[in-house]
Each structure stands twice: as C-alpha cells, then as structure tokens.
Amino acid sequence: MSPTREERRERLVEVYREASVCELCPLSETRTSVVFGSGNADADLMFVGEAPGAEEDRQGLPFVGRAGGLLSELLEGIGLTRQDVFIANVLKCRPPGNRDPQPIEIESCDPYLMRQVQLIEPRVIATLGNFATKLLTGSRTGITKVRGTVQVHEIGGRSVFLMPFLHPAAALRTPSLVETLREDFAKLPELISRPGPDGGGERPSAEDLAPETVAAGSDQLGLFGG
Known about the structure:
Elements: H1 5-20, E1 38-39, E2 45-49, H2 54-59, H3 66-77, E3 86-89, H4 103-120, E4 124-128, H5 130-137, H6 143-146, E5 151-155, E6 158-165, H7 168-173, H8 176-185, H9 188-193
Parallel strand pairs: 2-3, 2-4, 4-6
Antiparallel strand pairs: 1-3, 5-6
Helix pairs in contact: 1-4
C-alpha cells in the first residue's frame, strides 16, 4: 500500500532531521546551516539547483538571495508562488567560496535528494543551471542546448518529466537571458497538467560529471506547506 500524504510528510521530516546533523562529507565542518529545501511537501513541481550560496548558508533556506528573488518573480509570472512548489539543491551544504562540488559531496548528498523526490512525488522536476541538469539527466550537453526542452527520466525510483532551465543567477549576470527564462517558464503550467510519464533514464556517477561553478543563491525548508 502506498504511504498516505501524512506518512510521506512525516518521513520527509525524518529525512530533514537526519540531514540537519549530517557529517558524511567535509562540508559539515565549514557550513553554518544545512539547507534542506523549502516549499510544498506535496508539490507537483520541484526545482533542483546546485548548492547553497553564502546567504542561503546563513539563513538555512534555499534561493533567498537575488537569484531567489528572480525565481519568485518567474513563478508569479505563471500564477505560482514558492509555497506551491518545492525547492532543493543537489548539495545541502555550501562549498567554501562557492567552489565546484566534489564527488564525495555529491555522493553524500545524493540519497537525501532522491528521498526528497520519492516522498514529495513531483510529476515535474525543473533543474536550474548546468550542474543540476547534467547530474539529473546524465548528459554532458550544456544547458544552453537543452534548456526549455522536456525530457523523461527516472529519478529517485520515479519516472518524471524533467525540464532544464538557465540558472536565475546567470540571468542576473546577463539581463537579456531573463526573457529567455520567462519564455521557458511559460511552458510549465501545461507540463504540470499532464499525467505522469512512463519513461526512464540512467544517471551518471559523480566522477563522470565535469565540474561546474556553483552559482550563489539557492532555496530551504518549508516542509509543512500545501
């Protein structure tokens, strides 16, 4: 029998508590906060970024800087708020100086992300930026070639629609990309309304991925929304 909504939420809180004291990789020695994720624990749409930035590490919440402000604006443009979606990152702790995530860090955090997907049960996962996109799609193809293109992958044991997006931080550095983000976000409502997919896909190991620069600005815990 499938777990009820309440059971899934309780299990998600357990995962959060486990992650909040995690010492599986060296990032536990330098972090201020574990940035688990935030939003609606029953969301149909889940965003996955790369890693917390300095402000996220300070507040313990994902995407609370300027990039997070743009993400909120983009969501409002399609009639959603942060309380309607769930936002998480590949890494739950900030790499010092926003350096590239290391294989041991990715491997240590991966089970937390997979359990989030299993328990939230999103139909759509939106990856933000190159790193999260390459990790979850298992492809080295750059974000500029795949952004806004719907894919189907098996993630956390679930077949989901996956749509890659440029990272909001990149759009802040290059304002002309904001309109590109808006155009791609406009595709989300129709995608969310579709029945869940049946396809699958295989993800690579951490060592298979080319390192990417972490973008400052990620998002955190609002497990009790929805």
